[in-house]
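haha ok so turns out i had the wrong file open the whole time. this is the CORRECT one, sorry everyone. sequence first:
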Amino acid sequence: MEYQKPTMEELVKNQAILDVVRTLLGTGMTAVRGLLLAEEA
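then structure:
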């Protein structure tokens, strides 16, 4: 089994997935922070 170098397309796809995950995590953290602040108020 030889190691295949990822193609440019695969790299772009992976980068896009990482961006989406990062965005979702960021949104989730913001939502959680907002809920915590709302409960304290």
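The chain has a mean pLDDT of 91.
again sry for the mixup
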